[in-house]
Amino acid sequence: MVKFADRIQPCDNGLSDIFAYANDPALISFAAGYPNNHLFPQNELQTAFNASLTDSASLQYSSAAGLKSLRAKIAAHISDTKRTFNADQILLTQGAQQGLDLTAKLLVNPGDGVVVEAPTYLGALSAFDAYQPTYYEVSLQDDGMDLSVLQKTLMTHSVKFIYTIPDFQNPTGSTLSLAKRHALLQLAERYDVIILEDSPYRDLRFSGDSLPSLASLDTTDHVISLGSFSKILSPGLRLGWLVAAPQFLQPLTELKLGNDVQSSTLVMNAIDQYLTEHDINTHIAKMNRAYVVKMNTMLNALDRYLPATVSFTKPTGGFFIYLTLPAEIDANQLLKQVILPEAKVAYVPSGSLFPVSHQANGIRLNFTNLDNDTIESGVKRLGKILTAVLRQPKYAKL
Amino acid sequence: MVKFADRIQPCDNGLSDIFAYANDPALISFAAGYPNNHLFPQNELQTAFNASLTDSASLQYSSAAGLKSLRAKIAAHISDTKRTFNADQILLTQGAQQGLDLTAKLLVNPGDGVVVEAPTYLGALSAFDAYQPTYYEVSLQDDGMDLSVLQKTLMTHSVKFIYTIPDFQNPTGSTLSLAKRHALLQLAERYDVIILEDSPYRDLRFSGDSLPSLASLDTTDHVISLGSFSKILSPGLRLGWLVAAPQFLQPLTELKLGNDVQSSTLVMNAIDQYLTEHDINTHIAKMNRAYVVKMNTMLNALDRYLPATVSFTKPTGGFFIYLTLPAEIDANQLLKQVILPEAKVAYVPSGSLFPVSHQANGIRLNFTNLDNDTIESGVKRLGKILTAVLRQPKYAKL
């Protein structure tokens, strides 16, 4: 049998058990991170694809960097009072996910340090793992990473980049405060470390004012920033973007060529067409009005049904709420042995979201792709079984 | 300045000079490998995208492996009298290019041996380079790789995979004979080495009978095989496929998840819809009728205008014809210094297509995306200047 490369490791992220129940009509799944099917601008996209397909060039190769007029529109969308971006600072990618792969590919030799928030996005770890980094976890507070822990890490270890989801973090929903954004940039500059900013949920703010992105505050070329149409338009199109200074963008574009030549000309043309005809911010505002109701339905139900020993985050946007169980509980074992078979509720257990400590007592819940009644019923079922379980000392061993 | 990973090397593939002339209306470019814009089934694809966009599921996430009904149709398309494939043996990818990246990612540690045909496809080298292989070149004969050279390499070096384009090879147009297909598989089995079969041009046969693919002849799970809709339907859609045994397909699918989560649900649904409504073989036959005329136009013009010291291949399909100049000529220097500025003709020079020997006296010409008159004029200009150049001893130093 041919030997695989060292980067290939057997993986068990605790999600395969959920698939065994996927076809059970009684299952209520809070596990996936899907936008709501009913909120896609389906007719508008149909019109845009139709228009794009009147030009045969949409079916031809185009360029690795991606359609320039679309990059210009993205640049305008991400510009703010702090900084104006332009098309030449942007590379189009297959969702933000490809930006994670390309950035790690650009920077990481086996053993190089990568700082991640703890917990963090599972898909980022699966992108980074291929380059065999040494992970350092930095715990999260209500206003983002604990920067004293970060500084200690940067002082004592060689780190290539700091991976952060500053807006409505996956899985906790927390947002990095403005003060911490400035402090984080100062640390990156002082220790000459890249910040990889991943912000697919940035526009999904339900209250308060948007904070400037790390990219817009960066004056020393220390930020590579990722965005995506997946959460604000459609994940089925697979289009995202990467913003970086030229010294990074040029080799990242070469890596994109090697990965998959370029993104789909048709998809790029159709999204460009959609953005010409429609104000995406109007669409985003409509989504946010629906999502905030779902989030509040979930928060109210958690308040009502969860036992007092389980705490949960209260985000102001995004896709997720994060529950913390008593420290001795393993949410993955609990899911497999009790919650899936008895309560027919699914969630993402936290163990695989902490690449070093594997803290197992966390639960990620998604609220965007279920109707309000289902959210209420699912949380009720989850709360009931957690209440029962946490009363019984034997579950402390799960 | 943050240090890049060791895999990032400065690259000069000799193609950047062509871009300086790209906007010159007098330029005739045989450099790109584009299918013909006029041959896309544009209306049929428009109808297919329209139909797919009546279902909001086309805009949602689906699966890393890709749409099962499309995988089943691909399996039927690639099945032959030797072997019947099924959907579960297939992973959908971003063009065949992503299959090159994923396979190297699965198998190659820095320094591991990779055998390539000499010359080979530049994009494959740019995919493989990221995993820092040691390349071994195997020279090409009219009927494919020189297997005695290959055997010597396998006897004396540790090799992870043999990369081959068996049908209408890029850049030479040569096709691996049936006898050599069997012999190659025997070598792969004997030395327990993977064959990476890359066959995007397979269906573009202008005469003779199709030979069984290496995948269809493989009885010992030694072949990973790549195909693509890019050359038979549209490269702007970015959809290809990878065929492999389960022990490879499962980790390759995990790598695909980390690379970009999945291919576009919409694009997969629309191609599936197109294949339901239309016989792609009828479309392919129509393309082949147009391409064979273009190829013969080019071959006839080469016969007429090239000096006798320049030889060229005579393919029976595909996209390319390969010219061999006298050994002392550097086709890249010649392109930059004489042919682009004076004759306004572009081609791909061979230096970067040989990763070890950098043999510089070859030229790749594409014939698919130009009309017949332009092919004739371009070859005439190329022949005229090559005749002049090769008469002058000073060009021997180029």
TrEMBL record, chains A, B:
CDD domains: AAT_like (cd00609). InterPro entries: Aminotransferase_I/II_large (IPR004839), Class-I_PLP-dep_aminotransf (IPR050859), PyrdxlP-dep_Trfase (IPR015424), PyrdxlP-dep_Trfase_major (IPR015421), PyrdxlP-dep_Trfase_small (IPR015422). Pfam families: Aminotran_1_2. Signal peptide: none annotated. Keywords: Aminotransferase, Pyridoxal phosphate, Transferase. It comes from the Bacteria. The keyword NADP does not apply. The keyword Protein biosynthesis does not apply. Its cofactor is pyridoxal 5'-phosphate. One of its GO terms (molecular function) is transaminase activity. Residues 47-382 form the Aminotransferase class I/classII large domain. This is PLP-dependent aminotransferase family protein. It comes from Loigolactobacillus jiayinensis. The lineage of its organism: Bacteria, Bacillati, Bacillota, Bacilli, Lactobacillales.
